[in-house]
Amino acid sequence: MSEIPTRASAVVIGAGIVGNSLVHHLALLGWRDIVLVDKGPLPNPGGSTGHASNFIFPIEYSRLMYDLTRDSTEQYKALGVFTESGGFEVARTEARMQELRRRVTKCKAWGIPAELVTPEEVRKRVPYLEPSVILGGAYYPTVGVVDSLRAGTLMRERAQASGALTVVSGAEVLDIATEAERVTGIVTTKGEIATGNVVICCGVWSSKVAALAGARLALTPVVHQMISVGPIGLFAGTTGEISYPIVRDVDEGMYERQHGGDMEVGSYMHRPIIVPPETIPANEEAVLSPTELPFTADDFDPQLAASLDLMPELLGDEKAGIRYAINGLISMTPDGYPLLGETPEVKGLWTASASWIKEGPGCGRAVAELMSGKVPSVDVHEADVARFYPSSRTTGFARARAAEAFNKMYGIVHPAEQYESLRPLRTGPLYGRTRDLGAVCYETARWERPHWYATNERLLEKYAGRLMDRPAEWDSRWWSPVINAEHLALRDGAGLVDLSAFTILDVTGPGALAGLQRLAVAQLDVPVGRSVYTPFLNEAGRFVADLTIMRLGAGSFRVVTGAADGGRDAKWISDRLPDNARLADVSSAWATIGLWGPRSADILDAVNRDGDSRPPDTFGMTGLFELGGAVVLGSRISYVGEYGWELHVPAEQAGYLWDLLLDAGGPHGLVPVGIGVYGTTARLEKGYRAFGAELTPEYDPVEAGMTRPRVKAEAFIGKEAYLAARTAPPAALLCTLTVDSHACADGTPRYMLGGEPVLTLDGARLVDAYGRPSCVTSAGSGPSVSRHLLMAYLPAGLAEPGTPLLVEYLGEQYPVTVASRGAVFDPSGSRMR
Amino acid sequence: MDILVCVKRVPTVGGVITLTADQRAIDTRASGFTISPHEECAVEEAVRLAERFGGSVTVVTLGSTAAEEQLRACLALGASAAVLIETADGVETGPIATAAALASVAAIGFDLVLLGNEASDTGDYQVGIRLAHLLGRPVATGIKSISVAGDESSLAASRVYRGTLETYPLPLPCVVTVKEGINLPRYPSLPGRLRAKRASVRRVPLDVPAAVRDVVMTRLRVPDAPAKQATVLGHGPDAVPALVAVLGEIGVLP
Amino acid sequence: MTVFCLVELDSGGVAEASLRAMTLARGLAADAGAAGVTAVAFAAAPPGAAGLGAELAAYGAAEVYAVSGIDGYAPQAWARVLAGLLAAAGGAPGAGASPEISGHAVVAAGTERGNEVLAHLGAVTGLPMAANCVAAAPVPGALALVRQRWAGLLLEEAVLDAPAALLTVAADAVSPVPVSGRPAAAVVHELTATAADADLVIRAAESPDAGGGASLATARVVVGGGRGVGSADGFAPLEELAALLGGVVGVSRVVTSEGWRPHTMQVGQTGTKITPDLYLACGISGAIQHFAGCSGAKHIIAINTDPSAPMMTRADYAVVGDLHEVLPALIQTLKARS
Description:
Strand content of chain A: 25-35%
CATH class of the largest domain in chain C: Alpha Beta
Helix content of chain A: 10-25%
Radius of gyration of chain A: 28 Å
Number of helices of chain A: 20
CATH superfamily of the domain at 82-145 and 221-329 in chain A: D-Amino Acid Oxidase, subunit A, domain 2
Oligomer: heterotrimer
């Protein structure tokens, strides 16, 4: 029927909200000859957009999701398809009331209107709600609904009208052609299109389509049940789609939302129902649409009773019937974030998938910007499709985590909460030994990392009174005072840290130096044997990575970065290396053991055997040396602010070295120390910044306080912006704050966990000149300074030590003081030398 | 009046039908199950009659335990009792045996037995009539309107056939098979659904007369779709001249 | 053996559906080596029985029973007559039949009456009955059938092994084909039946349909409307066009579910099966149940905004566009012509 073009600058697969938004933004960014393909009919090709409940609550804990939602809402408003309705989250339990206080506090951080309300106040706006069922609620006046199908149609038609886009519906993609891991075209049931860019916006089908090109996406379709009940007598007199606020009955995992004359009731409480994409029916086979599967009433029945409790008269009306009921398919990823960007496997194969209606237009815009080589207007690094290692891009993983996360959708999820399924998967060579020491492991990029050790409970007595114990259950959940005991033991004697989860990337070849120089802010043309700590910046001069690079030879560099960041960092580097340099991920071949503390030199001496050589002793030096008859790559650096080494050993020798050090170190007070110290307490005392917390694409090195005295002569990405930032007054500066009083209203001391808004003394929200709110980026104990420590970017005028401010936590405000823009412990760094 | 409604669990078919590998059943992995539209109307008609005249509505089906899903759906719509004549999973019972099994339930205690005119899957067009003969009661089929006399002794069932209204005055008890259009069935209410969940379903074993001789299905097949490619006459009102030309070729122009 | 065929009469003589049934019955008779079909027609007073004989002979009838004595349509009484004829056809059922077919056969059109009467016959005789067959052929000791399920969306291949075969013929699947050459006139038997009161309990009182209007099932032109019509008021241009073309309006199931039009106008599996010369489907995406009702149309033209809608791809002709723009333009053009 419609002619299919033979070539395209980009082929976008999937005409849901994301694909439509993407073609719209590509056209706005100047792309021409774009083709949008969908196997289904338009305007509703049968994907998840077609059955979405289409409401938007602006509140999100994650900055990424908040920003995507905000950007998308603005786009919907500009298209004229947004209707503000207001929305409530109601609490049936005391635990939920605390959670709502936490959410309203987060709203304050983001600048979203929100307030806690009594049951009677809820009933004022929702007259059909039974107030005796709830303890209270949170009201969000800016909640609204959108017409996502209309929005998609408008965006698609605008791209068509500009002459940039051809739309082909009813064409199923049969194959994605590649040559040398690069996209060359697609094959559809209506013909072939040659193209260098294919974007998968296929929602629940995305992993199936990506597989055509040999790429894997960690995404699975899951069922979300929804029913529509009507006609509701009360709604008969209302005009338009919605006149009453949406209610989220979060304790029951449900929502109730007016839709014209009906009430839609949706649930995230039923058993997780995972649907393999290959079993999704074709458009022609589907009863309703491919993503509206037959309703399984038994799964929903328990929710009916709950909804009747909440809205007894309205939903209990015998004349109102369940007119529509589906097992609707939605996409889930292992961490709940969308998949955005270019796949690590295939150049030119992009995706914008696993997005909800409320993030769709934002995801489309971000990927269009990425495809155009621009820094995205919303920082989407946490959604980078490359964040998942190959070991996490598995069907089983996606399904297991979706099954586990489904019922947490409306749950009370602690910021440190751990997943349980499919663990342990990635274990370093020391795993058995650390487990024997009672390691409590947290997961990072599927690595098991000891967070603290049960065998160190013996230290609790020794350090009693200095452990900053947390009496409130919420504050101490996923935490242990043993962390603080380990911290003090490390500062007193020494600590041994299992860092096997590090991502280790070897960059080699004649072009290695030039290639890395173009990425790093720091000078990498250093003598062999030097370790360089450096950020990478994007074109806007803001952080995209933060890592350590060792020069091992003239054309040989070893990049060490965090497990959580390794996937993205590897792709950032390999995408930008010249042809005469190559990158190899050797993480699995090497283990890293940290040995730090005032006694660490004594411990190495104790281990030293006849014939062993001296370790590198100047700070920042790296070199091979013999230790206990083994060869070790030692690096005299520290992330805990103590003298010592990062010891890199081949994985098969790690156990030997660990045992050797632990045995020899005992008399010197050496204890195994977990990531709780390494990543939080010791780091915060030293004011060290962490990527993803303090260092993000929202801030630059000047604001982060990481400028160097000199700027290297060589060009590097972001240099111009960096130079400009150095000469301009910064809008915000990163500070460490101390909490002056922990007592909450009932006198219980409370301890912030991170993410909280920083306020002026009169309780006003702090925002810098760019509109960035001041929030706690990291929080944790400082046992050596006996203070709870917070880091936050503050507007430059307030970033002076001694400035008194407030921090709001769970709805209450606590006095804090700016302590430093550097370290609060050993600020001169004398302990490291 | 006490009414029995006979229903059948059938796949929900909404698009291209796909068969199982053995070609003896429809692949229902993505489709789910329902009862035939005619039967939805039979349940609705029964519930309305019971609402008007008092009495009870019992639904009965032949099927595996999975068919309880359909019985509960009927209970949610207002039926007061349900009977499952339990068959082995995957065994298709022919119309003769089905009528015999239903007769064992229908024989006592019902003033009216309602069925759909035909099951949407097998389309046998005979279970209601065979059941009526077994019960020795009159039967009207394809009915689009039922009017029960005030004294509940008789009813008038009617349908339109070739432009003529046919009305069947029948004494009660009797059997009537109805067609979609007799009413607009209600949807289940939330309280109805919860009542249905709590209700008990009476199970009785299938007692089929030995060696029933009936039509024996050997396999199913999907008829070949007409392999045509539509000729596009144009877009929007610009297509009207071409459209008029085609109407002329077909010979339907005024 | 004898192949009986129940024929229905309408104002124009033998109903078309019965001619289709005759066509299939004739094939069965030929397979069995019978001289022809024995047609059975019920009429209060046989109107021109000779004419009936000639008309049916053209479709392969060797004999015709013109049955009178039963006032109006009484399916159980009719079935009782057929049972009598079947019994009278000779021997115990099955005995003496050709080796290919185990017994006699009774064929009827797959209409409401045909299915109903044969179901009664099945109940009266205890014989199995196969509804809506599209083909029947003898195999050793039995009859191999192809019959419709799901209103023709699915075909069932089946075996019928019975002393006599009771079949109805799917109305939209077998074309009525007259015998080639000049058929011999059929022998017409006038039979006056006496029905038992018990059988006459089921008898239709006939009156004109108050619904009125041209019949959807027999209209030459049907203008169909679906979700794309948008509202009850949106049907105005469809009704105007149908009037101009001398046709009627039909609707998809969603239209009746929404309450825009009554169920009597529904085309589809659970509505009416149509067989017009032209079906003009406007704003109908084309659910499979809808095709079950309209696949008998000789020509289908679809108007839809989405070129990939199933109705658009399965039609003969397609116009891509909004029906609310296309239909007014078409109506204007048609009016200007006249």
